[in-house]
TrEMBL record:
It is an enzyme of class 4 (lyase). It comes from Drosophila busckii. Keywords: Fatty acid metabolism, Lipid metabolism, Lyase. The keyword Lyase applies. This is Probable enoyl-CoA hydratase, mitochondrial. SUPFAM superfamilies: ClpP/crotonase. It comes from the Eukaryota. The keyword Lipid metabolism applies.
């Protein structure tokens, strides 16, 4: 595939981890409409590809993404935003059924931070910086910065970030639970791929159910979430992979999952 704003490759020992690299260096990977369209196209195609176990989304050493494209968005009017359904292309990331890991080096600002938060797991390079600077542009976050961030880091920290526009560094992002690990910048992508490979050793069918169950914690009440989890747990008992996983334990051998 020939992309203008992204690069894609399939990697890992079993060639089962897809890496999508945002590649618009002149604008610090500002997320213009063309880039978001390519990203959602690539995600849809990897999402359907049975040989892909996990997807890694990354940027450059200097920027994961410096936000929505301010220059492109500046002339928008209210009615254009509404009628053009502005940001509709952004939802594909959160809709992907496969695990998606953000490997964030450098700036993840505004829409860049929101894009990272749409992913399932965030690994940060030690020079990463996260922020929601929209307030300084006279607007507010539009793709989860006031919602996902608040659920992840709590009200006080999210308010502070959204109302000041101040950035937090990788160490602080780990402390508040926004990222699950901080890694030296030059090892970040390798570690993210290893994480994808580890997930890829499990049944992709069960991984998908598990991802849905964790996401349900963000989308509904505790009571509804627990009910969904219990029923989904029960549902695994109808799969060949659940039988195989438990039998393999009893037999003291590695499981051989068939993803069914
Ligand atoms: C368009 C951008 C951009 C952006 C950087 N560039 N961020 N273009 N949209 N979000 C461009 C610059 O204009 C410049 O182009 C080139 O990238 C390099 O950027 P510099 O500013 O020269 O780099 P530096 O001095 O190192 O500063 C880095 C930075 C700064 C701190 C990240 O670029 C910055 O503050 N960017 C904007 C961050 C931001 O406000 N993001 C939120 C956007 S609003 P030229 O042509 O001059 O070389 C948003 C809303 C989301 O995301 C709503 C829902 C999706």
């Amino acid at each position: 595939n020939s992309w203008e704003y992204i690069k894609t490759e399939v990697t890992g020992e079993k060639k089962n981890v897809a890496v999508i690299t945002l590649n618009r260096p002149k604008a610090l990977n500002a997320l213009c409409n063309g880039l978001m369209l390519e990203l959602s196209t690539a995600l849809k195609s990897y999402g359907k590809d049975q040989s892909i176990a996990a997807i890694v989304l990354t940027g450059s050493e200097k920027a994961f993404a410096a936000g929505a494209d301010i220059k492109e968005m500046a002339p928008n009017t209210y009615s254009q935003c509404i009628q053009g359904n502005f940001l509709n292309d952004w939802t594909e990331v959160a809709r992907t059924q496969k695990p998606i890991i953000a490997a964030v080096n450098g700036y993840a600002l505004g829409g860049g931070c929101e894009l990272a938060m749409m992913c399932d797991i965030i690994y940060a390079g030690d020079k990463a910086k996260f922020g929601q600077p929209e307030i300084a542009l006279g607007t507010i976050p539009g793709a989860g910065g006031t919602q996902r961030l608040t659920r992840v880091v709590g009200k006080s920290k999210a308010m502070e970030m959204c109302l000041t526009g101040n950035m937090i560094n990788a160490t602080e992002a780990e402390k508040v639970g926004l990222v699950s690990k901080v890694i030296p910048a030059d090892q970040l992508l390798g570690e993210a791929v290893k994480l994808g490979e580890k997930i890829g050793t499990h049944s992709s069918l069960i991984v998908q159910l598990c991802k849905e169950a964790v996401n349900t914690a963000y989308e509904t009440t505790l009571q509804e979430g627990l009910k969904f989890e219990r029923r989904t747990f029960h549902a695994t008992f109808s799969t060949a992979d659940r039988k195989e996983g438990m039998q393999a334990f009893v037999d003291k051998r590695p499981a051989n999952f068939k993803n069914e």
